[in-house]
Write a structure and sequence with these properties.
Layout (H helix, E strand, L loop, with lengths): L1 H12 L8 H9 L4 E4 L6 H11 L3 E5 L3 H13 L4 E4 L5 H12 L5 E4 L7 H8 L3 E6 L14 H4 L1 H5 L7 E6 L4 H10 L7 E3 L7 E7 L3 H11 L4 E5 L3 H13 L4 E4 L5 H12 L5 E4 L12 E6 L6 H8 L9 E7 L2 H11 L4 H19 L4 H8 L19 E5 L1 H13 L6 H9 L4 H5 L16 H13 L3 E2 L9 E2 L1 H7 L6 E5 L1 H9 L3
Parallel strand pairs: 1-6, 1-7, 2-4, 2-5, 3-4, 5-6, 8-13, 9-11, 9-12, 10-11, 12-13
Antiparallel strand pairs: 14-17, 15-16
Helix pairs in contact: 1-3, 2-3, 5-6, 14-15, 15-20, 17-18, 18-20
The structure holds adenosine-5'-diphosphate and zinc ion.
Adenosine-5'-diphosphate binds next to helix 3.
């Protein structure tokens, strides 16, 4: 069976060997075991259902929440000489009917549909009347309510699915799944433990960087100048930012397009085509862009401001380097980014949801302040089963500077937090440590604390950064609510007792210059 799979790989796709995890996933499906494949973006998930689909009898149904991706997938299959189509709301009723009829006659090996298609009695009766090879859930994290991109309609097809009398083997594929999401998918579509294929999330060809304290527009301009012919995406947090940055860059003569939900469908389509076909080198976009973009030679993804959570960040940044060649992922951080994300989270009507989102946002903020390897930080966040070495190329791994013992300073901060009643955020704490005569400091009588002004030799900004560092490293926790209320942790107790040193790599000025300015 696996020999046939290898023959298909060579004959249809022209590839000589399988990538990590592909063979295993294919083998499980061919042995009729429901299978979950967790592989990074660009890992080659499509082949994991396409090859079984080609070797088994009957038609494969691929369920995807991304209507925009279906056409590309189908075009790619057709170009290999494989009979494939899609049925979705972008087609006229007549076209839909025609394709259903062709499907009934067994004309297709692959049919792509959106989850809503399972509400259609015609579709259900059609697939019950033909031999099916498999049913695949692409972007399977969307069926889990623990996922960051939960689609209720995706989840609700599962019961319908189990009423199908000729139910074939099921397969789920995703690039972003925490252990929670994996458990959820496994239970929902009944995947035995032994057929969960998880290759981990590491993207060895990507370099992650955090850039702080630079004018963002200047940074981008310099960056694009240094990489004139390379394709890349710049994500902004708002449409307004996308508009103005694109305007600015075009005026400067850069080949830059834009993409956001405020544009007409035609404009968006055109921008996407221009980018995919290398008519424009850079696209400035909101997070509306990317789902379903199949462009393998994206060399960089810049985040113009911090996104809402690590899941979105990794998915967006992960659009770089899908061809396996190096990709650069730079995040431009400024503390105002946090307020915008909080504001967006506040729009949610559910208190429960808000709490969750704040916690996720905090993990994102910590990412911007941590001194550990950025790739490792992300892998730890996803509880990647394959613990790895530091990547050696992120902005933390390559930071040049000297390790300084900051135990005493940490103790001052921690005891100040304690004296302030563990009810306030980094900003006010920094003011107290600095000895500021701010109104709020006086209002709470913090100018009478013994820690008032004990770190006056630092600037407020430096103090805020140091507090963020302590938070990112787990010496402080910001609490769970809307406004961070710094609290001590078990770790901080050991520091206060003097049982644990706190060390921090302090960037030397020349090194700072290099790590911020050099693209590589
Ligand atoms: P994913 O869906 O996991 O992001 P894709 O299925 O789109 O990834 O595959 C990414 C790229 O890798 C595609 O261009 C695909 O043709 C290529 N690819 C997949 N499997 C192999 C393989 N075994 N050998 C070489 N290239 C492969
Ligand atoms: Zn690293």
């Amino acid at each position: 069976m696996m020999q046939q799979a290898e023959e298909i790989l060579q004959k249809y796709y022209g590839y000589s060997s399988f990538r990590k995890g592909q063979k295993e996933a294919i083998s499980h499906v061919l042995h009729d075991r429901n299978t979950l494949a967790v592989m990074p973006t660009g890992g080659g998930k499509s082949l994991c259902y396409q090859i079984p689909g080609l070797s088994l009898e009957g038609t494969a149904i691929i369920i995807s929440p991304l209507i925009s991706l279906m056409k590309d997938q189908v075009d790619a299959l057709n170009s290999y000489g494989i009979a494939a189509t899609y049925i979705n709301s972008s087609l006229s009723a007549g076209e839909q009917r025609q394709r259903l009829q062709d499907l009934r006659q067994g004309r297709y090996k692959f049919v792509y549909v959106a989850p809503e298609r399972f509400d259609s009695p015609q579709f259900l009766s059609t697939i019950q009347s033909i031999p099916l090879s498999l049913i695949a859930f692409d972007e399977a994290h969307c069926i889990s309510q623990w996922g960051h991109d939960f689609r209720p309609s995706y989840r609700s097809i599962v019961p319908t699915l189990y009423q199908i009398t000729n139910l074939p083997v099921l397969m789920a594929l995703t690039a972003t799944a925490t252990q929670e999401v994996i458990r959820d998918i496994k239970q929902l579509i009944d995947v035995p433990d032994e057929s969960i294929v998880n290759t981990g999330f590491a993207r060895d060809n990507l370099s992650f960087r955090i850039i702080k304290g630079r004018d963002k527009r200047d940074f981008v301009e310099e960056y694009l100048k240094a990489r004139p012919n390379e394709s890349g995406i710049i994500y902004t947090a708002t449409r307004k930012d996308a508009d103005s940055l694109q305007h600015y860059l075009s005026n400067k003569g850069f080949s830059a397009g834009k993409y956001h939900a405020g544009m007409t469908e035609n404009q968006r389509k055109q921008a996407q085509v221009d980018f995919v076909q290398d008519e424009i080198t850079t696209i400035i976009a909101t997070n509306a862009f990317g789902m379903g973009i199949d462009k393998s030679n994206v060399r960089y993804v810049i985040h113009y401001s911090m996104p809402m959570n690590i899941e979105s960040y990794y998915q967006e940044a992960g659009r770089a380097g899908r061809d396996g060649e190096p990709g650069d992922c730079a995040l431009l951080f400024s503390s105002q980014d946090i307020n915008l994300q909080r504001f967006l989270i506040d729009q949610s009507p559910s208190e429960e949801k808000k709490k969750e989102e704040y916690a996720k946002l905090q993990a994102m903020i910590n990412y911007c302040h941590t001194h550990t390897c950025l790739q490792q930080y992300i892998l730890d966040y996803f509880e990647d089963p394959f613990s790895s070495e530091p990547c050696g190329k992120c902005s933390n791994c390559t930071l040049v500077g000297e390790v300084q013992d900051m135990t005493l300073e940490a103790q001052m901060v921690l005891s100040c937090v304690k004296r302030m009643g563990e009810r306030f955020g980094a900003g006010l704490t920094a003011k107290v440590l600095k000895g500021s005569s701010d109104q709020k400091v006086k209002q709470f009588k913090f100018n009478t604390l013994s820690t008032y002004g004990i770190m006056s030799n630092y600037t407020e900004k430096e103090l805020t950064r140091f507090i963020h560092f302590l938070t990112a490293e787990g010496y402080l926790t910001p609490g769970k609510g809307r406004y961070p209320a710094l609290q001590l942790t078990d770790e901080s107790v050991t520091v206060l007792k003097g049982d644990k040193p706190v060390e921090m790599l302090v960037e030397s000025t020349t090194a700072k210059h290099e790590s911020n300015y050099n693209a590589d």
